[in-house]
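Reading group handout, session on sequence-to-structure problems. Before we discuss, look at one worked example. The prompt was deliberately terse, the way you'd type it at a terminal:

> structure Enoyl-CoA hydratase

The input record follows.
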Amino acid sequence: MSALYLDDLSPGDAWTGTRFVVEEADVVRFAREYDAQPMHIDPEAAASGRFGGLIASGWHVAALVMRDFIANNPFGDTPLLGIGADELRWLKPVRPGATLTARREIVAVRRSASKPQLGTVTMRTTVTDQRGDTVMSMINLMQFPARPA
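And the output record:
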């Protein structure tokens, strides 16, 4: 896909990523390295905890959603720069075996007044599971190039 530029985008543009499954071995592996809490790494302890079983770290879910974004490459060869994430929410536990889908929608496109060759794109990401329940959401801000003259 060729590059998309700031000028090509509008609020309301939306797309859905590729469905992916959260595998138990990956849940445990990620958590052992980055979020080693019993609810993420120990099935027995997790079973007696408040979630009644093993759940994925929210950071793992966020990383999987990022991998989906990169793999689907919705902006083609555009050199993007992530400059922030707001309102990151983990709304429901994600259990091993869950199938997740991320939907992204552009909510704002702004050209920079001081650097008109650049702008920002604000995007809302909503992640749902196989039942259609929203398990994670966030707003992220990306720096985007305008179309070269």
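Points for discussion. First: The first strand starts at residue 14 and ends at 16. Second: The mean pLDDT is 95.
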